[in-house]
Amino acid sequence: MGLKEFVIKKIIAAIITIFAIVSVNFVIFRMAPGDPVRMMFRDPRISGEQMQLIREKFGLDKPLWGQFIFYLKELSHGDLGLSFWQRRPVREVIAERIPQTLLLVLTALAIAMISGTILGAFSGWKRGTRVDSFILALSLTMYSIPAFSLGIILLLIFAYTLSIFPLGGMTTPASGLTGLGYWKDVLWHMCLPAFSIVMWYIGEYVLLTRSSMLDTLRKDYILTARAKGLKESTILINHALRNALLPVITITGVNIGFAVCGVIEVETVFSWPGIGRLVYDAVMKRDYPLLQGLFLVFAISVVLANLVIDLIYGYIDPRIKVGGEKK
Amino acid sequence: MTISLRFLRRLKKLREFFSLLVRNRMGLVGLAIIIFFLTLALFAPFLRTVNPTKVGTSENILLPPSSQFWLGTDDLAKDVWSQIVYGSRISLTVGFLAAIITVFTGSLIGLIAGFYGGKIGEVLMRIVDFFMMLPMLPLMIVLAAVLGPNIWNIIFVISIVSWPTTARVIRSQVLSLKERTFIEAARCIGASDSLLMFGEILPNVVPIMFAESVLMVTEAIYAEAVLSFLGLGDPMNISWGMMLHFAFESGTMGKAFWWVLPPIACIVILIIGFTFLGTAITDVLEPGYKEAHGF
């Protein structure tokens, strides 16, 4: 199998998956309780005739199959329907929240990745010592604490009790700050939510880098490097860590897709105005079209993140170029 | 005769397994934590001090812990300790039932996919791959929101999202098991497919199913807590996650740490308990564990 064939195959698989997701999404929300027209226009004065017109406009007068075609057609124009709660196009509501989520997630993931890798490599290097077991125990504990409870604890300590950080949101309301002052304010608001996400992911990176490091340290070329009399730090950085990093890169790609989902808990706790908090608001308001649109965004971002990883791997891994699927 | 002998051998193995488990430090701590919460759940009506659903009078709102209200009261003057006690029932019920349904479904599908291979296996694994591609938490939220707030729906939602992982694990086990000579031998004497699957292969994957179930319980408890915190819990059965949801929504969280910290502590400790037990079981099941630890 050549590289070109591999790329085409992966892209087709991703398209099929996305189509399946769209279909599942349609089916799930057909099960939603209540008449969508009544949910949208909570006005008992609307006459039956007007209701009929609205139904026709949204394709609700068609049979289920026709509704699915209608949904696909609207979707291909990027139309995700109207939000019950905000009475605006769902696409608009979601689009204006995405930058805030990306800012939070990418910052937190970068910090988690760098510090987790360093801690994990250090832990693997010092395997069997007290430092190693301490880092390991801490990572495992962090791994079992739900992100939202960690957030609540941080909020109780640093915001309510010590008042060092704000209670939530992304900026101080009506502060009128601009330029550098504005970004400082954002950074101040971002500390606690970012820290919660970092703590949630760091365990994974520590455990992964550590085990990868242990594997690498057993390799012959490390022995060769030692025999050559190289400095320990040179061996650690140039020989061991470099090779131990490959799986870390993979997991980061997977995480970027899934991190967008993990932020639902953290953004909710800290009222961070991103798409995670939007999920919570949509649930509380029982805004099904908004929830449907959000699910689509989450699912497609995971599929695309996986596709990118696959393609990068196809490019890096010589075995794929030569041929043969892994079995 | 043969059946009872087989049964006795199994029983002996089981007893040996438990004695190894109890001698494992993590296993012992995990079991102790789980037994503690099981006791809370079983004897809830005797351990509670006040009816947890009873809305109190206005002078009892948000009281700090005292001899009357062991863990204080919430914004509706309901007793926190009694809610914690009853909350353990929800977490454990959801945890155990979701784990059983998940592992049962996942194992059955993994068994069929691994045993038959070919077209059936291919189709089943494609479905598994598709499910594993979906983001779990958003899918659970969407399903729970559409189906409505109800404890059975939560169990259903957790199970439907989680079975593919088990199916994968079991399938890979079955794939290697079915190449072994005892299967070949059984096939030679004319054993049917179903006898091979359920009589020969299944008993060999039971230990892994057991370990899988314990780890699945942690996932289910976690998922229930998150869904309830996000307001998708069953309002008739107050769970720890629901308590946090109400505390969060009330806006009085900062003033009443006694209302917030106990449910968080319970969720985390119970999850750690099952994680420890699961890790210990996986360790003990590892071939050569007994010899390595000199038992």
From TrEMBL, chain A:
Keyword annotations of the record: Cell membrane, Membrane, Transmembrane, Transmembrane helix, Transport
GO terms under biological process: transmembrane transport
Topology relative to the membrane: Multi-pass membrane protein
Record keyword Hydrolase present: no
Membrane-spanning intervals of the chain: 12-32, 102-122, 134-167, 187-208, 244-270, 290-316
GO cellular component, one term: plasma membrane
Family: Belongs to the binding-protein-dependent transport system permease family.
Name of protein: ABC transporter permease
PROSITE patterns (UniProt xref): ABC_TM1
Pfam families cross-referenced by the UniProt entry: BPD_transp_1 (PF00528), BPD_transp_1_N (PF19300)
Protein's organism: Aerophobetes bacterium
Annotated ranges, domain ABC transmembrane type-1: 98-313
Superkingdom of this protein's organism: Bacteria
Cellular compartments annotated: Cell membrane
UniProtKB/TrEMBL annotation, chain B:
Keywords associated with the record: Cell membrane, Membrane, Transmembrane, Transmembrane helix, Transport
UniProt xrefs under Pfam families: BPD_transp_1, OppC_N
Primary localization class, coarse: membrane
Keyword match Repeat: no
Any one annotated GO CC term: plasma membrane
Subcellular location: Cell membrane
GO biological process, one term: transmembrane transport
Keyword Membrane: yes
Sequence intervals crossing the membrane: 21-44, 90-116, 256-281
Domain ABC transmembrane type-1: 88-278
Membrane topology: Multi-pass membrane protein
InterPro entries in the cross-refs: BP-dependent_transpt_permease (IPR050366), MetI-like (IPR000515), MetI-like_sf (IPR035906), OppC_N (IPR025966)
Family stated for the protein in its record: Belongs to the binding-protein-dependent transport system permease family.
PANTHER family to which the protein is assigned, alphabetical: D,D-DIPEPTIDE TRANSPORT SYSTEM PERMEASE PROTEIN DDPC-RELATED, OLIGOPEPTIDE TRANSPORT SYSTEM PERMEASE PROTEIN APPC
Designated name of the protein: ABC transporter permease
Organism of origin: Aerophobetes bacterium
Organism lineage string: Bacteria, Candidatus Aerophobota
